[in-house]
Amino acid sequence: MRGVRARLTLTIVALVVLTAAILGIGAYTFVDSRIHQGALDDAVLQARFDLAATIPDRFTDRTREAFIESRLADTFKGRGIDVMVDFGDGDPFRSKAGLDPELLSASLRDSVAAGQLAYERTTLAGERVLVVGGKLPPDGPSFYFVHPAGTLEATLDQLRLALTVGAAALIVLAILASRLVARGVLAPVDAGSRAAERIERGDLSARVPVTSGDEFGAWAERFNRMAAALEETIARLRAAQAQNRQFVADVSHELRTPLAALVAEASLLRGDLDSLPEGSRRGGELLIADVGRLRTLVDDLMEVSRFDAEAEEIASQPVDLGRLLTAVSTGRLPEARVVLPAESVIVDTDSRRLERIVGNLLDNAREHAPGAPVEVTLAVASGAISIAVEDRGPGVDPARLERIFERFYKADPSRHGGSSGLGLAIAAEHAALLGGTLTATNRAGGGLRIELRLPVTGSLLDGDATAIGRGDGEGRSTFHQESPT
Amino acid sequence: MAGARGRPLDARILIVEDDPSIREVTAIGLRGAGFTVSTASDGREALDRFHAEPFDLIMLDVMLPIVDGLEVSREIRRTSTVPVVMLTARSDTIDVVVGLEAGADDYVKKPFEVPELVARVRAALRRAGRQPDDAASLHLGPMAIDVGGRTASRDGRDVPLTRTEFDLLVELARHAGQVLTRDVLLDRIWGYDYLGDSRLVDVAIQRLRAKIETDPANPELVLTVRGAGYKAAR
User: 3-class SS at A318?
Assistant: First the structure.
């Protein structure tokens, strides 16, 4: 864009410079030659007349003394002309000091001596002059008429200056004008560029003003139609997505009440299973187990639709990670080995979300590596906390590894466990909300390792465990605030 | 399992729940545990019953037609300290807070299993019927606590506290200077003998502070112990 502006300016200025140069130089040359030619013609005409009439009339004796006597020099002086007369005796007459025929060029003097009328432009006594020379016929002395050319040259100098200044002014004007023109021409491009930038930032309502009926106007209209189509399509997609999410939220919400009844009923049934006849008992057991599965699925769906509604709040408070990991493991997978650093690690975080992440990872390990040893490791690295859940199960096909955090993704399609297929996706969402990441890798010795990395925010390694946090914002409010104790 | 703990075998419980299945299964479960059960299906009916006959515990669904559960709880609290256990479909912190603010003592999240519900009902009844084991007077800073009379005052002026808040204050004041974890408080105040929701403790502490501290944002009487729990200033 800048390039076009510069090129446009350069082109216009170059054209103006060229035009100004041609016109200026042409005009100057013309005036110069006309003025010089005119002055020369006058001087020659006068010299011819003087040599033919004025001088012979009053100057008959043809000696130096007679010439002085004739006072012709005064007459010429009266016309503004100085005169030199070369009598051929080495002592010429000069109407003004500093003049001398010797100072004139030899070719001029030869021409004059040969009886021709000749001229020369030169500088005499520090003054620019036009000298016209001629011989008084038939064999008189050589006369040189010295016409001052100073004013003439000064006039031409002024003309030159005026033309130069004029050309410079014209160029400046051309630059300004070309910039204005460039801006005008490029304004639609700028407007289009700004609108595109706004669209890029997500403001799909950006449009280009249609200010003219020319090609740019047509282009702007086309651009606006494209933006409108884009906006409409995206709005439609968003609406569809929102509708989808709302549907999932509604479905899981509608399922809640019958599910709550089912869970309570199944729990009653469980207490009385033993008193059921043999045939009904197995049915009762399956029913209870399936109600449990349904409950997990609906709970997970509700959780997922809460993420989609982006209505999540983080309730941070100081959490002893070692205690949390031990408690969750005891509840979910008591066989799991919990490996903790020597010192307790306390960080500000949302303990419920952390429990959910670790719980889901343990559920996943239990389900996909049944019976295999599971290890939960807490480690503190510089700037980050790492919680890893490792199992010694079959691991996951490397090609499927990066997809295991997708919703309803089953790494092993043949497996039908009690999980909803949402556990790892939910864990990943919680991890992201806590500012952390979940990554899955296959262990070298077989088995799956899923690691949660959390950035450290106000971590306390043991020793400050009894510090008193004042002004805490627990419970309903969201972020735990720390103040110096 | 019925009446294993002995105490309020014949306790009368009002179940307020609009879904007939949940209402019925809850009633069956509580009757099976030895309680006398009445039911109501909306807020208006619940209040009519509450005003007509005495109950030892109200089990209240939050989302009710006509008059919602929170409103019913507030209405009950105007005249009675009967234990109120909320049934909430959502376990969001907001719901817990709003429920406790409306005067509920505890909440049970749906879906629930009947034995779990029965345990919570028993715990609430036990708490309500608990006689003070001593009639001592306790002090916590400017607070004077009459354990037997179940009243607290600050600089001679009565500070009205709910049952839960009062119990919490007594527990903390009895162990002034000693850290009580959230789990310990859940066990001693709410009678949870399993891993409960520690937000219950946090919310109750906040509400207690709002009533007894000069500046609840900078508590001087009930202090947070980072990463551990709470303690009363010595």
Answer: strand
